[in-house]
Design a protein that fits this description.
The chain folds into four domains: 307 residues, Rhopdopsin 7-helix transmembrane proteins, CATH 1.20.1070; 59 residues; 100 residues, no CATH class; 148 residues, Heat Shock Protein 90 (2-Layer Sandwich). The longest helix is centred in the C-terminal third of the chain and has 52 residues. Strands 1-5-4-2-3 form a five-stranded antiparallel beta sheet, with helices on one face. The chain has a five-stranded mixed beta sheet with strand order 11-13-14-16-15. It is an alpha+beta fold. Helices cover 59% and strands 12% of the residues. Helix 3 runs parallel beside helix 10. It catalyses: ATP + protein L-histidine = ADP + protein N-phospho-L-histidine. Keywords: Kinase, Membrane, Transferase, Transmembrane, Transmembrane helix, Two-component regulatory system.
Length: 688
């Protein structure tokens, strides 16, 4: 970098030591001390003259003008913007920084940027390819800086000095072009022995010596530049073919080829070729600004060699290539069509409109879509496979199907790796060679390498795709778990209903001595069993009908065991009837049956009392006996009391149990979903 800044400082010092005629603002110099200024005297690049003879004449006139300017003042003829001509003595002073044109700073900025890019790459990698890039960048700065010195002159430099600066410009260009050829021979893989690097150095060195000493009639400088470009592209194509199964190398090479193609082609076609063909008057852009095209080359080469985020740059370069190729192809087709229509006098306006509307424009649009459409991994046709992963019965089956899905979508060239320590989110690794996928619920993380069988790199679109896959898979797994949870809850419900209801009824049928009553209980049991299986949580029941049936059933169960039931008929005989959800009514029935069963089996009681009431939308059920009592429900063995607690908790109710030596009292409160019950008579109240 020290050399780069020294070159810039030297250029500034050199220009500020040159003479400058002080002219009115906007004036154009047309003569100096009576010597008329002809168009070639102000030409920016002497190579545009085409032959050494014309160039020697140009340098002679430059020497003549430089001698005239070596004085305190000159007789300057100038033309004002309004076309008025004037001639008067004007002072000659030193050039200041404000006198330097913008193109001077632009050219030196291009050269300085080239060296900065080379320094960045050199900090990342140090091999023979980077050395070639350093030489290329140095050659570009040398060429740009020397061209800025004579390109930014007001009128003239000493002819001999001018020729030396021109030769220095040619030397920098030769170094740049030769280094570019060597770079394509070395990057991304060395395809020739190192000794072969001397071939382009010798060949293009001879070109430079020929121009320096005038061995030919015309400069070979343009031929050398075009040759260097073509040879570079040939080696680039060879490198591209050899990197078929190396996606990282191919990604960097795409930037090499793209930047070289764009930068060198634009500079050569717009700045070098017109002068070589004697068309310097038709230059589209001045040479000074044409140096800006080399910035494309520096950026592309720096990114390619430094391998900076190649997984993203690879996709961008591919799109740029498609746009350039598509634009060129469309322009060629448009030109051929125009030429064909012009050469066909029989093609009337109607025929031309028909061809353009129904044939040409649809075909051209189809071609654009084919060229510029993006092709990337997709899951559009993989939805059934994604669902099958989540619905696989075992974890090992899901692991296997998950690997098959990833392989079908991304086609990795290597075996999918299982990661014990997976990242929290999808991420790219190894410059896009690898894609790490996080763990998804019971599936471990994965690492994929070499997308599309090694023909491309993983990129940001693949990250989005993996994120979509993970979301989709998570939804499927959560749906599966929700289904399994629902099935488990339904099985538990059936188990509780069978235990609390069917068990109690069968027990009552077992202990009754009346055949008719036994048959009725068995029929009721079958009816309840069908209700449990078929109705589930869907139906609603009349509250008082169910309570009345429960009272009769409980009376039979208690009396057959020789006990007394205290349940006033007023609890059911009065009040407005209501529809109660099956879940609530089934809980009441199951709880009452279980509590009575516990009293019959464990309490050794003589009397069982039941009370039902409603207050503020809450149904209150209380059952107590005069037995010996037993342990609280949390310590009691069996499923009955735990089922009671689960049922009341599920319905948002509460339950409480107290047991002493004089008996056991059990109570529950359940919401009736806003159903209001009429006030019950006093004999139906639960005693304190």
């Amino acid at each position: 970098m020290l050399v780069a800044f020294m070159i810039l400082a030297s250029a500034v010092v050199f220009m500020t030591s040159r003479p400058h005629i002080d002219l009115p603002p906007g004036a154009e110099l047309v003569s100096v001390n009576g010597i008329e200024i002809i168009p070639t005297d102000t030409i920016e690049e002497p190579d545009q003259l085409g032959t050494f003879a014309l160039m020697r004449a140009f340098f002679d006139r430059q020497t003549q003008f430089a001698a005239e300017l070596d004085a305190p003042s000159v007789m300057a003829g100038y033309r004002m913007p309004n076309g008025a001509l004037s001639e008067e003595a004007r002072p000659v002073r030193g050039t200041t920084l404000s006198d330097l044109p913008f193109v001077f700073w632009f050219q030196n900025a291009v050269g300085l940027f080239a060296m900065l890019a080379a320094a960045w790459v050199f900090s990342l990698r140090r091999d023979v390819g980077v050395i070639a890039f350093l030489a290329l960048s140095f050659g570009l700065q040398l060429s740009a800086a020397s061209a800025s010195l004579y390109g930014a002159r007001q009128l003239a430099l000493d002819g001999e000095l001018f020729q030396r600066l021109s030769n220095l410009n040619h030397l920098g260009t030769a170094i740049f072009g030769t280094s570019l050829v060597c770079l394509f021979m070395l990057f991304p893989r060395r395809i020739v022995p190192l000794g072969w690097l001397s071939v382009p150095i010798v060949v293009f060195g001879l070109f430079h010596l020929s121009d320096t000493y005038g061995w030919t009639e015309a400069p070979l400088y343009p031929v050398a530049i075009v040759s260097q470009l073509l040879v570079s592209l040939v080696f680039g194509v060879i490198q591209f073919r050899k990197s078929r199964n190396q996606p990282v190398d191919r990604a960097g090479l795409r930037w090499f080829l793209l930047s070289t193609f764009v930068g060198c082609i634009l500079f050569t076609m717009l700045s070098i070729v017109p002068g070589a063909l004697g068309l310097s008057e038709t230059l589209v852009i001045s040479q000074g600004y044409a140096f800006g095209f080399f910035t494309f080359i520096q950026v592309g080469l720096a990114l390619g060699i430094g391998r900076f985020r190649l997984f993203a740059l690879d996709r961008i370069s591919y799109q740029i290539w498609l746009w350039i190729s598509g634009a060129i192809l469309i322009l060629v087709i448009d030109g051929l069509l125009l030429i064909w229509l012009r050469e066909q006098p029989w093609a009337s306006l109607t025929i031309a409109l028909f061809i353009g509307s129904f044939l040409y424009f649809p075909l051209r649009q189809w071609l654009i879509n084919r060229l510029l459409s993006t092709r990337s991994a997709s899951i559009v046709d993989k939805v059934p496979q994604v669902v099958s992963v989540g619905l696989a019965p075992t974890r090992s089956a899901r692991e296997k199907k998950w690997d098959e899905l990833l392989h079908n979508i991304f086609s990795p060239a290597s075996q999918i790796e299982v990661l014990d320590a997976a990242p929290d989110r999808p991420q790219l690794g190894e410059n896009g060679l690898a894609l790490d996928i996080p763990a998804i619920m019971d599936l471990k993380g994965r690492r994929l390498r070499y997308a599309a069988l090694g023909r491309r790199l993983f990129n940001a679109s693949d990250l989005d795709l993996v994120g979509m896959l993970m979301q989709f898979h998570t939804v499927v797994l959560e749906s599966r778990e929700a289904f399994e949870t629902g099935a488990h809850q339904e099985r538990e419900r059936i188990s509780r209903d069978v235990h609390d209801n069917i068990g109690a009824q069968l027990l009552g049928a077992l202990h009754t001595s009346k055949e008719a009553r036994k048959d009725a209980l068995l029929r009721d049991t079958l009816t309840d069993l069908r209700t449990i299986v078929n109705h589930g949580f869907q139906s609603s029941l009349q509250l008082w009908d169910v309570l009345l049936d429960l009272r009769n059933e409980t009376t039979d169960r208690v009396e057959v065991r020789g006990l007394t039931l205290d349940w006033p008929i007023g609890d059911m005989a009065t009040g407005e009837d209501h529809l109660v959800p099956y879940t609530t009514m089934n809980a009441i029935r199951s709880i009452l049956r279980e509590v009575v069963s516990n009293a019959l089996k464990h309490a050794a009681a003589q009397k069982i009392s039941v009370r039902v009431s409603e207050e503020s939308g809450m149904l209150r059920l209380s059952v107590w006996d005069d037995g010996a009592g037993f342990e609280a429900m949390e310590n009691h063995k069996g499923n009955g009391l735990s089922n009671i607690k689960n049922r009341t908790d599920a319905l948002g109710g509460t339950c409480h149990l107290t047991s002493t030596d004089s008996g056991t009292r059990f109570g529950i409160e359940l919401p009736l979903d806003g159903i209001k019950m009429s006030e019950l008579p006093n004999e139906g109240k639960v005693p304190a």
